[in-house]
Amino acid sequence: MLKVFGKYFKTEAEAETCAKNPQALADRVYGHRFGNDGQGYLWRGRGFLQRTFKENYAMFANDMNLPEVMKDPDLVATDYPMESAIWFFKRNKLWEMCDVSPSNESVKALTKRVNGGYNGLKHRQEETMKIYKWLSQ
């Protein structure tokens, strides 16, 4: 726990209090970031891109005229997983990044824009190239 979320906990014992409690962990780590009002778990990642944070849900709900999403964020997972992903790509002008032959560098650039970092990059690059090769046959 401290390896991944070390800046949110002072001791291993403190981190362990959230180890088997996803709600407590999400509230601790994401509770007061990006528009979350102490409810990190409520605004956890959903949809095909696992969009997180109340701000993202609010922009999606507003842009797509889906006010019910703010009352029931689970709708992003159950009813709008693809729509939320397409919305994110369109809003952030990511389609043009996809309009190239895939390479490790293009996957890295897109990963940074979608995830804000490089978690799982090597696996994502390998899978992208495998699928591209399969589609090109």
Compact overview of the structure:
This protein has 137 residues and is an all-alpha fold.
Q: How would you describe the overall organization of this protein?
A:
- The protein is an all-alpha fold and 137 residues long.
- The chain folds into two domains: 2-91, no CATH class; 95-136, no CATH class.
- The chain has helices at 2-5, 12-16, 22-30, 54-63, 68-71, 75-78, 81-91, 95-98, 104-115, 121-136.
- The radius of gyration is 17 Å and the shape is globular.
- The model has no long low-confidence stretch (mean pLDDT 91).
- GO terms for molecular function: hydrolase activity.
Q: Evaluate the radius of gyration.
A: 17 Å
Helix coverage percent:
55-70%
Order of helices and strands: HHHHHHHHHH
Silhouette? globular
- Averaged pLDDT: 91
Spans of at least 5 consecutive residues with low confidence: none
Question: How many distinct beta strands?
Answer: 0
Count helical runs: 10
Beta content comes to under 5%
The main β sheet shows up as: none
The termini sit apart by: 43 Å
Work out the count of structural domains: 2
- Helix-strand category: mainly alpha
Organism: Xanthomarina gelatinilytica
Keywords: Hydrolase
InterPro entries: Lysozyme-like_dom_sf
Protein name: Glycoside hydrolase
